[in-house]
Amino acid sequence: MNKDKKVYKEAKYGKKSLLVFSSVLFAISVGVIAFGISLVVHGCKSDISSQIAFNISFGVMLILLALASGSISLVMLITALGMINTNQGSVKDGNRAMGTINIVKCAKCGTELSENAQYCTNCGQNVAGIVQCECGEGNNIDAHFCSKCGKELKK
Ligand SMILES: [Zn+2]
Ligand SMILES: [Zn+2]
Fold it and tell me: How much is the pTM?
């Protein structure tokens, strides 16, 4: 479950940086489009024909470039926003993994334990349904002898 938490954190970090990066790129694109338009408008007003040609062609080129980067940044922005929705699901999953949702109750004393608990923290009752032998073999709670080494199981 620690691994899940780490993956979630990385996803959250990735989402944030993508969101910031795409918004910055989008803002730059909008600025460049405005600059390109002003260049074209300015070029049209100019009296020198070579300046008109330069301004218009440079302005149009800037606008086209900015449109391309702007649409890329929009796609990234939408992707990042989509990742936020996915992460909301991960928060719930994270809580579940941390044991705040999935809990088991000790059959003997009723203490609430995380679902992967082996023994009750209050009374020592085996809640996993498995008895670990000294040899390391896990046996069913009903077993009297180890299925691997034959040793009598202490409960
Ligand atoms: Zn108990
Ligand atoms: Zn054994």
Answer: 0.43
Residue 123, φ and ψ in degrees, nearest 5:
-120, -5
Instruction: For the beta carbon of residue 89, count every other beta carbon within 10 angstroms.
Output: 9
Residue 110: inside a domain:
no
Ligand nearest to the CA of 111: 1
Per-residue pLDDT averaged across 131-152, rounded? 90
- CA–CA distances in Å: residue 87 to residues 1, 12, 21, 80, 97: 16, 7, 19, 10, 14
CA of 151 to the centre of ligand 1 (A): 26
Instruction: With respect to residue 108, please indicate whether it lies within any of the assigned structural domains.
Output: no
Same domain for 124 and 87: no
Q: Domain range for residue 54?
A: 2-97
Q: Facing residues of 144 across strands?
A: none
For residue range 4-36, list pLDDT tens digits in order: 666 656 666 677 788 888 889 999 999 998 988
> In Å, how far are 16, 22, 79, 85, 152 from 9, measured between CA atoms?
11, 20, 17, 15, 46
Same domain for 81 and 11: yes
Please tell me the number of the ligand nearest to residue 146's CA.
Answer: 2
Per-residue pLDDT at 86: 61
Give the Å distance between the CA of 125 and the centre of ligand 1: 5
